[in-house]
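Extended Data, record Methionyl-tRNA formyltransferase
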Amino acid sequence: MRILFAGTPNVAVPALEALVRDHKVVGVLTRAPAPVGRKRVITKSAIHERALALEIPVMTPSSLKDAVIQEEIASYEPDAVAVVAYGMLVPKELLTVPRFGWINLHFSCLPRWRGAAPVQYAIAAGDTQTGTAVFQIQEGLDTGPVFDIAKRELTAADTAGDLLEELAKSGAKQLSRVLSAIEVGEAKSMPQEGEPTFAPRLTSKDARMIWSQPAEQISAQSRGWWPAPGAWTELGTTRVKLGPVAATSIDGLAPGEIRAGESVLVGTSTTAVELSSVAQAGKPWMCASDWARGLVDKAFEIGGGDE
């Protein structure tokens, strides 16, 4: 099968590698190089770099609506376009260019968590289960029929970063397997069933901790936002970044109240949570207990206002 691959971040790399191994990848679509970091260094995407290493032609259009890029895509004569975290909407006129259409690996059990950050929202919402879905792209956001869903139970130790890395590897095999089934006419798709939920792109403002929430909810959010955009709070006028926090059975602390000892606890509306790592603005990460030395009668801002 002749496949055009569309993807951008590192999480898409395992899928590209799997398709190169199992199929014929004739070209790659990815986002254009963009400024990264404080120095705003123009940087190629992870998929761009990997495609160059694999000697696969790369296209980096700023839009798929331009007639020139549409003609270039058609010139590859793809049987299918495989999509993993590409980050760009596909216009209607391109959907029918490949004979098998555009096939997307999505990191959720659709229709739950359609959108850009499904793993982050699944963990932050306290879901007990997530997974990966391979579906046919149609007009609309992640609305197409599903070929295959692979489920994975969530635990209180899961963070978005670790889980995405795991699902990227298992999903790569799943996507390749579905494309093989499509090629030989053995794949069957089913309409999505159930009420959809949505996972829009996250910003730093979304990751502010609100200490008047229950401990389990705060823990889930801190793990869902890790490592990006990263949970944060305020201590007076100082912004403090937080690593994943764990719910405890310890009570007696007011929301936001900090108790420092062998461990660092923060009060919530239920029991306390335990901090793991902390970084104040412009400073490196450090163990929470080292950071908290010398803190007396301190409390984080409860949160919930504007950033």
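Summary. The chain has eight helices and 19 strands.
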